[in-house]
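Why run this: before we spend reagent on co-expression, it is cheaper to look at a predicted model of the complex and decide which construct boundaries make sense. The entries below are exactly what would go into the expression plan.
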Amino acid sequence: MISCTEFIWTYNELFKFLHEQYGKQAVIDFWIGISDDFLGNLNALVAEKGTQGMYEYWNHTLEEEGADYTMTVEEDHFAIDMHRCPSVGLLNRGPSSKYADYCEHCQWLYPRIIEPYGFEARCDIIDADQGACRLSVRRKSESAN
Amino acid sequence: MAQREKVNVHKDFHGAMSYGIQHVYERYGEEAMTAFLRQVAHEVYRPLTEKLRKEGLKALEEHWRHIFTIEEGDFDLSYEGDKLVLNVRQCPAIHHMKTHGYAIADKYCEHTRLVNEGICHAAGYECSVEYDQENGRCVQKFWKKN
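The model came back. Tokens follow.
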């Protein structure tokens, strides 16, 4: 059994495998598949509770993963300032090389779940080597809808 | 493995792992799934392979005891002569996925066989696994090649 504690390394290999065998689009297709077909729990929480649902989802996952982050939760605004991403930390310690576009997966996974519920969402990679990034979500203004 | 000092156990990752295995199997076929999991064995478990080569079955015994303990699996480890036997009565991955409604890949348990073979063969060892994916049970055996 591949342990869940070894998952990050395994998924990193999957990204590399798909890219090397089938090209970058195959990796993107996989990320879109995860977003559309696997992250139903995040989708349901955002649909029901908006930014509070985002808080519940990421508070649970980031605490279990041992992340170093700051979370901002307001009714119309949600942000995660990731100071040290736990996944990047693991990958930087080996045993295999980190997929060059590893951090990009968050940009494909989360905005496409959040935005249909009246929000604008973006993930900015600040430092891919250190695992620093920012997920920023704001409710769209009426004029933007 | 590298994260021994501090272990964060996020069991939903089993569901994501299963999704990944199914994705490769459905879209690219069983040969691709096999190649991917062989790559995982080679790249992710390289330190375990080296430890097995140097220290023998004790390395695998320690690895499985650590993994199945932190994952809260129902298991035991024993020896049948020169063979290390890992008897998993309740697989923590299958149990978690079933409990939380995650789809389990058609060939999910094959990853155990493929990854174990990748680790063992590179270190001069053999292995076998008999699994019951539906009920989340398996018996894995490991022994040195003659």
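The interface with chain B takes residues 1-11, 13-14, 16-18, 21-22, 30, 33-34, 37-38, 61, 64-66, 86, 90, 93-96 of chain A (CB under 8 Å). DSSP finds seven helices and four strands in chain A. Bring this page to Monday's planning discussion.
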